Amino acid sequence: MTLQTRAAARLSVAPMMDWTDRHCRVFHRLISREALLYTEMVTAPAVIHGDRDRLLGFSPAEHPVALQLGGSDPAELGAATRIAAEWGYDEINLNCGCPSDRVQSGAFGAVLMKSPDLVAECVAEMIAASPVEVTVKCRIGVDEQEPEEILPRFLETVAAAGVRRFTIHARKAWLQGLSPKDNREIPPLDHPLVHRMKAAFPELHLSLNGGIASLAAAEAELAAGLDGVMVGRAAYHEPMNILGAADMRIFGAGAEADPFAVARALLPYIEAHLVAGGRLHQISRHILGLFHGRPGARLWRRVLSEGACREGAGVELVEKALAEVEAAR
Ligand SMILES: Cc1cc2nc3c(=O)[nH]c(=O)nc-3n(C[C@H](O)[C@H](O)[C@H](O)COP(=O)(O)O)c2cc1C
Predict the structure, then answer these.
(1) To which protein family does this belong (predicted)?
(2) For the whole model, what pTM was predicted?
(3) Which of 184, 189, 236 to probe ligand 1 with, by most ligand atoms within 8 A of CB?
């Protein structure tokens, strides 16, 4: 499974709180059979004490899927990893990149860039508890840190504890004064630094993250020697543009996805969700970008966003939206 997950990591969809939930991942999986999908971050204490069905439950259709954990207590992370592994995740990832206040107060996320020794202790516990590969997602540094100096030390220290695969969000995080959103936009991207890390650590599997806006841009990074590319916002807002041809172009498998077929293939999943007491909106909010940049994109978005919250909204609404897009072709 490690090898399979590594291969899938050539292109991955980033962990995004409130966005890459299980419904979103099922939708993405219908577009790309091959890409690696990450969950939203779940904190280790939540896994240990919380509602596991809600936090960890996922559909077998989502494989290969990686769980991202947040935490900074080695024993807690080990315990959470043990539990998560039982649920059948293909990879467990430690978040060392998230700068939100809530995360800082628990002393984890991007602040861990300042404590590589603690991260090494954390991943050692996780590796001991995990039958699947343990990976790390990090930044290039935080606050006044000098990325060129601290990033190699971070990678070296964490690799010495057994991690062989990292995803690097190629910008700093400012722990004070910037909102999480600003922290994804304002600190400048430094893609060349990630390439230099690959040259310095050829034995590590390194994925680049941050600002990749097209499949062609992802292909260029891979061609330039990186092992993987992780795409966040673009994959969410324009899933067909990033994932639609990924199986063919990145993985040399399968054909280009058709957005109409994707929407139709999602209908039974939506139906099952509704029968189980769920709401249409919980799924349809993730698929608004399906026709991004294509004829009928606005109609699709409008029909779904206006109708999905109504009491009793069901698959007919998605069928209606599809018919309108088809008519607009
Ligand atoms: C809504 C949203 C939620 C996010 N939540 C997480 C998270 O839970 N864990 C994490 O490591 N990064 C999180 N991120 C950061 C992304 O994983 C990614 O690193 C960032 O968006 C940069 O990639 P992009 O430019 O391709 O979007 C989030 C980003 C967004 C937009």
Answers:
(1) Belongs to the Dus family. DusA subfamily.
(2) 0.97
(3) 184
